[in-house]
Amino acid sequence: MSFPVDESGLRTCFHGINEPAIPFAQYVDRLVHYANVWAREKPSANSQGVRCAVLAVEYMERAQVRISGKSIHRLFLIAFLIGIKLTDDFGMSNTFWGRAGGCSLEDVNRMEVEFCNLLKWDFGVAPEVYEAQKRRFLA
Fold it and tell me: In this structure, what CATH number is given to the domain that contains residue 118?
């Protein structure tokens, strides 16, 4: 996954005060794990967690937000959360995902609205785009 990185000091609602201590790959694994547990699925290339992570990557690229070490975790969390909401009618609450992702409920709610606005509320992903992202994500 490659995203544009912003080290200019620009601050948005997606920027934390400090860079998280948890490495990004481990953070992604954590969210995927929680989604799989909730869906009662074993880890696989087609599990709920992987599906939402693939959508998150697509949404982050589409949003064209410059990313820094202080924002990538929070951006991924919100993109992942939107993927959950689109693929699971009975997903866990924003409160849960905020705790899992290390953010307050207020921050999660604010970031979710902002991210949806960045995507212009267009969450559709064509099957061929999804498959291409999935291959990249699992590589």
Answer: 1.10.472.10
Instruction: Give the domain range for residue 67.
Output: 24-138
| Tokens 């009618």 sit on residue | 89
Q: Select the more confidently predicted residue: 94 or 8.
A: 94
Model confidence, pTM: 0.88
**DSSP calls for 37-77:** HHTT--S-TTSHHHHHHHHHHHHHHHHT--B-TTTHHHHHH
State residue 14's pLDDT score: 82
With contact defined as beta carbons under 8 Å apart, do 111 and 71 qualify? no
Do the beta carbons of residue 115 and residue 82 sit within 8 Å? yes
**Alpha helices (H) along 1-139:** 24-38, 48-63, 72-87, 94-101, 105-118, 127-138
Asked if the structure places residue 5 within a domain, the reply is no
Using CB atoms within 10 Å of the CB of residue 109, give its burial: 0 to 12 exposed, 13 to 18 middle, 19+ buried.
Answer: middle
Residue 97 C-alpha from the chain's centroid: 11
